[in-house]
Every structure is written in C-alpha cells, then in structure tokens.
Amino acid sequence: MTKAKLLYWATTLALCAMYLGAAVFYLTQRTAVEQGFIAFGFPVYLVQVLIVAKIAAPLAILSRLSVRLSDLAYAGMVFHLLLALSAHLNAGDGGYLPALVALALMLTSFLAQNAGRRTPSPNVPEPFSLPARGQGSTT
Fold first, then answer.
1. pLDDT for 41
2. SS in 3 state form for the chain?
3. 97-116 vs 3-28: helix crossing angle, rounded to 10
4. How do residues 65-106 score in pLDDT, each as one tens digit?
5. Taking the CB of residue 137, how many other CB atoms lie within 10 A of it?
6. pLDDT tens-digit profile of 7-49?
7. What are the angstrom distances between the C-alpha of 60 and each of 23, 46, 55, 56, 138?
8. CA distance 86 to 96
9. What per-residue string of b and e applies to 69-93 under the rule 16 or more CB within 10 Å gives b?
10. Residues 64 and 117: beta-carbon distance below 8 Å
C-alpha cells in the first residue's frame, strides 16, 4: 500500500467515524443536542437533517457507488464543517476543535482520494490528482 493510499484510507475512516459517532450522539442525546441548537439560535429541526447527513455522507464516501455522489458528500461536509466551526468560534464555547479536525481530515481525504480509489474524481485539483491504478504516465 502506497503512502498516498494509506493517507487516504486513514483520513477517510477517521472522518467517517467522527460523522457516524456524531450521528449516534445526536440520536442518543437528542434533548441535549436540541438545547445546544437553541442556545446557538438555530432551529431544532436542523437536528433531524444533520442526523441524516451525518449518516448519508460517510455511506456515500465509503461505498463510492457514484463518484459524483461521493464528491457531493464531500461538498456537503465542507459547508457543514465551516458552519460548525463558525458557530463555535462565534459562541466562544471552545467547541470548535472537533470541527477543525474534521475539516482537516475531510480536505486531506478529498485531495488524496484519487490515490486510494479505482475511479478517480475529476474534481480533485491537478497537483493532487494522481493517475488511477493501472494508468501510468505516457510522457
């Protein structure tokens, strides 16, 4: 296993574990989560939406049934994590660290995905895009 492939799988599995763990927390501690959302000034119906997103995004990335769907899950994670980071920073509650760690994992996973997957994503910027397995450089 190459270093790039190991990097992809390590960051992807850690990211997905964080998201699925958060979904379990949201499901088992729903009242506390809803109270937190109220304290941030967010509507509590977002909790249901985030539970679905925190389960669906890792499934889309890990299953990779569709590269487009997987990349869409990464995009959703970017928005979610930036909003979570901003909310915690503005609240001054110190809860921004998990969002910051997840954001770093997500960016690394996204940029390394072409090294770890059979079907490359066309959305990975060129400097990070490695040839898909079995395809070598022709120059």
1. 93
2. CCHHHHHHHHHHHHHHHHHHHHHHHHHHCHHHHHHHHHHHCCCCHHHHHHHHHHHHHHHHHHHCCCHHHHHHHHHHHHHHHHHHHHHHHHHCCCCCHHHHHHHHHHHHHHHHHHHHCCCCCCCCCHHHCCCCCCCCCCC
3. 140
4. 999 999 999 999 999 999 999 999 999 998 999 999 999 999
5. 5
6. 999 999 999 999 999 999 999 999 999 999 999 999 999 999 9
7. 15, 20, 9, 6, 32
8. 8
9. ebbebbeebeebbeebbebbeeeee
10. yes
Residue with tokens 């995009």: 75
Q: Which amino acid is at 108?
A: T
How many Å apart are CA 44 and CA 32, to the nearest integer?
11
